[in-house]
Design brief:
alpha+beta, Four Helix Bundle (Hemerythrin (Met), subunit A), Beta-Lactamase, 3 domains, 11 helices, flat
Length: 570
């Protein structure tokens, strides 16, 4: 015989499962009851509707017997509707009026209620159909006896049909009451079973969960004291035993974490974390290890940042101290190779930068702790160095062809493992290129340092170039000043001559002004004389006109005298 040992979780789960099953069963019972009630209500409505249609059948047959033949179609419709509804009540289906589903009639209601109704309806249906389809009046004008008998049957049996409809309704209601009483009994039993199970579950939880948990109160004391060297003494092999073992494991993890944190606080960043379980599941240990690694990364970042800052400060001092030295270029490349622990290096400076065909010239080289006296000229775009000069961007290579030293580098010696080419660029202007080679790879922070230093070197070269340009401009300015002084003396002499000429012109202008005034005076006198002559001329003209008038008068007088003389002579 097998004995099943249930854990606390499984037993509680089983109890909850039973209660849940009972609740679901109770819900389904109630739901089924509601569904049965709804179906009974729908069936009862349909049965009552059939009672109405039976009355309509009798009503339409009365109208037809009175000679109103137009009601035959309504009678046929009422007959068909009643027959279809009765079929749906028996076999189930959708109500044609509202589309509601009607359940089939239960077996216990068929023999006692539905079958007697069908028996009466069969004869009722035959007589109603006979009235609907036969002629009421025969050819001799007499009433059709067959139709008359059918009508009498309908009148006599309509009450029986209604009684059977009512009996079917009552049967459905009794059927529903029986099911309701059975459902109430089932719900009452389920209710008491639920109460009993809740009580049993509570008793089980008190004896198997609450009391054992009270034994774990030591956890509060240990946490309050902060003394994680203690362990929880709990020997039961259940969930609470697992909890106790987990708490002891947690305390062990806290002890390990505390020791690890103390070691990290002392600066021992290489300390290993002694976890009690898999490092992937120990989130605290994982977080502490990540903290140690990040602290190491921060320390390494600080070291790299300090190394770069010290290097920039060192080279700033070199720029300030040796910028006028003839070995300035060699001092730069030699110190750079030593500072980044490279093996060889070269410094290329742009020559004829203002010209369209500018090129690079190797001005200093340093390899394997020795100065190299090399001469090299590289055109723009030629090799890697020319490419850096043209593009103005850094090139870092770790896979270098065997022939590179002999073809491109110009430094001689063994073939390096890594090569760094950095443009000396300032404000998008390239002043040169620095080439560094090493037997070990350059770190990213070293590359960044050389790029920043390249800007400083370019700035220094730009300052030197500007200084030379300034001296050149100063010399040209002095020469221009001498030329301007000579031109100024010449202009002074020209100015004196111009002033003398201007005085002569002014004297001649004064003479001309005097002659102009005399001429204007003569013109005024001439104008006055002309005015006087014009006045005299006008006077003469007036006198001439007077004289002309006198002559005209004399002419007229002469003509008059001549006429008189002619008259006298005649």
């Amino acid at each position: 015989m097998f004995r099943i040992k249930l854990t606390i979780r499984n037993s509680v789960f089983l109890q909850l499962l039973v209660i849940s099953g009972l609740i679901i069963f109770n819900y389904n019972v109630g739901r089924q009851y509601d569904q049965d009630l709804s179906e009974v209500e729908k069936t009862v409505d349909l049965v009552e509707s059939n009672g109405t249609y039976s009355l309509k059948i009798v009503f339409y047959t009365n109208l037809i017997m009175q000679g109103k033949e137009e009601n035959r179609s309504k009678l046929n419709e009422a007959i068909d509707t009643y027959a279809n509804n009765l079929r749906i009540i028996k076999l189930g289906g959708k109500n044609p009026e509202n589309g509601a589903y009607i359940a089939p009639t239960p077996a216990e209601l068929i023999n006692g209620y539905l079958q007697p109704l069908e028996n009466i309806w069969t004869r009722f249906y035959e007589n109603a159909n006979l009235i609907a389809n036969k002629k009421i009046v025969l050819a001799d004008g007499s009433l059709n006896p067959e139709v008359k008998d059918a009508h009498n049957y309908l009148l006599l049996n309509n009450t029986k049909l209604l009684d059977k409809n009512y009996a079917l309704v009552k049967g459905y209601l009794d059927y529903f009451d029986t099911k309701q009483a059975r459902r109430d009994l089932v719900l009452a039993v389920i209710f008491f079973i639920n109460i009993a199970l809740v009580i049993l579950m509570w008793i089980y939880i008190v004896y198997n969960v609450v009391r054992p948990i009270s034994k774990l109160n030591e956890i509060d004391a240990i946490i309050n004291e902060g003394n994680y060297e203690r362990n929880i003494e709990y020997t039961r092999d259940d969930e609470l035993g697992k909890v106790a073992r987990s708490i002891n494991t947690l305390f062990q993890s806290l002890r390990n974490s505390t020791n690890f944190i103390l070691a990290i606080g002392e600066g021992k960043l290489e300390t290993h974390y002694q976890g009690v379980a898999s490092i992937k599941s120990d989130r605290l240990g994982t977080a502490l290890i990540e903290m140690r690694d990040k602290m190491g990364q921060v320390a390494e970042s600080d070291r790299q940042r300090n190394w770069a800052s010290e290097g920039l400060a060192k080279f700033a001092e070199i720029f300030r101290t040796y910028n006028q030295s003839e070995d300035f270029n060699y001092i730069i490349i030699s110190n750079l190779v030593k500072y980044i622990e490279a093996n060889q290096g070269g410094l290329f400076i742009v020559a004829d930068q203002e010209q369209a065909e500018s090129h690079l010239e190797l001005v200093a080289a340093y390899a394997f702790e020795k100065r190299k006296y090399l001469t090299r000229k590289i055109e723009k775009g030629e090799g890697l160095i020319g490419e850096v000069y043209r593009e103005g961007s850094t090139i870092y290579m770790t896979e270098i062809p065997e022939s590179y030293v002999h073809i491109t580098s110009g430094l001689g010696g063994a073939n390096p493992r890594s090569l760094l080419l950095v443009p000396l660029k300032l404000n998008d202007v390239v002043y040169g290129v620095v080439e560094l080679a090493s037997f070990k790879p350059f770190e990213p922070y070293q590359v960044e340092f050389v790029e920043k230093l390249g800007e400083s070197i370019a700035s220094t070269f730009a300052s030197v170039k500007n200084s030379v340009q300034t001296q050149k401009l100063l010399k040209e300015s002095l020469q221009l000043s001498e030329q301007m002084r000579a031109q100024e003396e010449e202009m002074r002499q020209n100015l004196e001559e111009l002033m003398a000429t201007q005085e002569e012109v002014q004297r001649k202008n004064a003479l001309i002004e005097e002659q102009k005034r005399e001429l204007e005076k003569s013109l005024e006198e001439e104008q006055r004389r002309i005015v006087e002559l014009l006045a005299e001329r006008n006077n003469l003209l007036l006198k001439l006109e007077d004289l002309q008038g006198n002559m005209n008068d004399l002419e007229m007088e002469n003509r008059s005298l001549r006429a008189n003389m002619e008259k006298t002579l005649s």
